[in-house]
Write a structure and sequence with these properties.
Layout (H helix, E strand, L loop, with lengths): L1 H4 L1 H31 L1 H11 L3 H30 L9 H30 L5 H6 L12 H8 L3 H28 L7 H29 L2
Bound molecules: protoporphyrin IX containing FE.
Length: 221
């Protein structure tokens, strides 16, 4: 199949799933920033999403996007590794491209590890509890997301771990958006630096939004 067999096809899948995950991040950051201003409104949003059929369908589509993005990242890195030129014929440009995609894989693995930590902190105590039926020790927690934010970020080490995770996300996002532009051929001299700047500004806004939630959670804990 062309999408899987060709290098461009694999990059298209990486870019499309990456864009989808970026859309989720915009939504997720905006939603969480609400917690800084109003616990009630934040909890209303959490309860509206909860474990309703549309939230569960969203979670499954999201999980499929994450899995596809990861599987193709490994596939792309493996094929690039197999196709690398051997010995002194390796050009500087080629080395830079290889280095960038290796960095993306390492950053991606860090982002994934942070995501596991995050899902254990929040998703496992909220949506999952609702799906399986709340156990007594979690009772009340999945309906009070704002309180869970304060409890989680009352620990300064957890705050630092999250901020480290956000930094990895910043690098992964800026490089990812940059390489998606390059795969689509949008790499001319005038537009490329502008798009790169937009990617940097966009990633910074996303990461600062999440960081503000962590700091507000710590201060109000
Ligand atoms: C301060 C930062 C963040 C806070 C306070 C936060 C909060 C939450 C909460 C409360 C949930 C559970 C929602 C529910 O189960 O009803 C959740 C789920 C989730 N979060 Fe975050 N989040 C943050 C950052 C992030 C980041 C940076 C990412 C991705 C890189 C992320 C990805 C996810 C995913 C994939 C889920 C599961 C989504 C689902 O249930 O459909 N979160 N988050």
């Amino acid at each position: 199949m062309w999408l899987i067999d060709s290098s461009i096809g694999r990059k298209v899948i990486m870019s499309v799933t990456g864009l989808f995950l970026v859309l989720f991040l915009i939504f997720h950051m905006s939603m969480n920033v609400v917690a800084i201003f109003s616990s009630e409104t934040y909890n209303d949003i959490c309860n509206f999403l909860g474990a309703n059929w549309y939230a569960l369908a969203g979670t499954m589509v999201l999980a499929a996007g994450v899995v596809l993005h990861i599987v193709f990242a490994f596939l792309l890195s493996y094929r690039n590794y197999k196709a690398r030129p051997i010995g002194y014929s390796t050009q500087k440009n080629q080395k830079e491209v290889e280095g960038a995609s290796q960095n993306m894989l390492v950053l991606g693995i860090i982002v994934l590890m942070g995501l596991c930590m995050h899902l254990i902190h929040f998703w496992a105590k909220m949506q999952l509890q609702e799906i399986i039926g709340a156990t007594p020790e979690y009772e009340g927690q999945f309906t009070n997301g704002a309180e869970l934010i304060r409890i989680t970020f009352s620990n300064p080490y957890v705050c630092l771990a999250y901020i480290g995770w956000f930094i990895a996300i910043w690098f992964h996002l800026t490089h990812g958006i940059w390489s998606a532009f390059q795969s689509t051929g949008l790499n001319n001299k005038v537009w490329f630096p502008r798009l790169k700047m937009c990617a940097n500004i966009f990633s910074t806004i996303i990461v600062l939004g999440f960081t503000a939630v962590v700091i507000a959670g710590y201060i109000h804990s």
